[in-house]
Amino acid sequence: MLHTVKHSPFSHHSLAQALRHLQPGDQLVLWQDAVIAATLPAWLPRLQPLADDGRLYVMQEDLSARGLAPIIGEPLTMAGLVELIVSQGSPTAW
Fold this sequence. Notes:
Radius of gyration: 12 Å
CATH superfamily: DsrEFH-like
Helix content: 25-40%
Largest sheet: 5 strands, parallel
Distance between the termini: 13 Å
Number of domains: 1
Strand content: 15-25%
CATH architecture: 3-Layer(aba) Sandwich
């Protein structure tokens, strides 16, 4: 299953909730303000297992718009997101 998180980890608990609900093989996309988590050392321990398995994606456009570079995660374009949705089905949005 594909999960997407859009809220900053500073203002919402949606990323933490999504991580609690992920099942083996699920993929996670951070977009909008959630991309901030991929730049924060405090989130590395929780996101690293997903990144190691190639299941963590970070929207490149959202990183660029905020002037950020990810520490962790696979950069993803909008075209790549569409491909993931086509292959995985409708995502669970947090």
